[in-house]
Amino acid sequence: MSSLVLDASVALSWFLRDESDAYADGVLAMLENKEASAPCLWLLEICNALTVLERRGRINEAETARVLSLVRNLPIEMDDSPLAETIERITSLARRFKISAYDASYLELAIRQGLPLATLDRKLKSVAKRAGVPTA
């Protein structure tokens, strides 16, 4: 059983030396005994962030490969709900809170599973609070 919904921003901070964060480290410590949930786009967001960092010269291909290898071993349950079943709720949340559909997918999952949301994104934290979703 999952204990929280995990945003990509938190996981990325675990693996990027210059992105270290005490809050994210606390979330990682929680996962020593528990599992997290994430929407199916989570791994794509990780991949996108890493390739952008490569293009900017902040990391290289070997570092990307290392992070992806570590990420695959995290205790994260990918939501397997068909997008056709959640897209209307995601769209509604994105519209209501003026956030991206990507961020709305994390919020929708947290609401649907009744779990707190772990994110480093200040705007998403604020939106979660307004939506009645606790943050981890």
Q: What is the N-to-C succession of helices and strands? A: EHHEHHEHHEH
Average pLDDT, all residues: 94
Sheet/helix structural class: alpha/beta
* CATH architecture term: 3-Layer(aba) Sandwich
Strand order of the largest sheet: 3-2-1-4
Number of separate domains: 1
Distance between the termini: 16 Å
Count of distinct strands: 4
Description:
The chain has 136 residues and is an alpha/beta fold. The protein has one domain: 5'-nuclease (Rossmann fold, 3-Layer(aba) Sandwich). It is built from seven helices and four strands. The protein has helices spanning 8-15, 22-30, 42-55, 61-72, 83-97, 101-113, 122-130, and strands at residues 2-6, 35-38, 76-78, 117-118. The longest helix is centred in the middle third of the chain and has 15 residues, at 83-97. The two termini are 16 Å apart. 29% of the residues are buried. The model has no long low-confidence stretch (mean pLDDT 94).
Give the helices and strands, then pairings.
Layout (H helix, E strand, L loop, with lengths): L1 E5 L1 H8 L6 H9 L4 E4 L3 H14 L5 H12 L3 E3 L4 H15 L3 H13 L3 E2 L3 H9 L6
Parallel strand pairs: 1-2, 1-4, 2-3
Helix pairs in contact: 1-2, 1-3, 3-4, 5-6
Please outline what is shown here.
This protein has 136 residues and is α/β, with parallel strands linked by helices. Helices cover 59% and strands 10% of the residues.
Keywords:
136 residues, alpha/beta, Rossmann fold, four-stranded parallel β-sheet, 7 helices
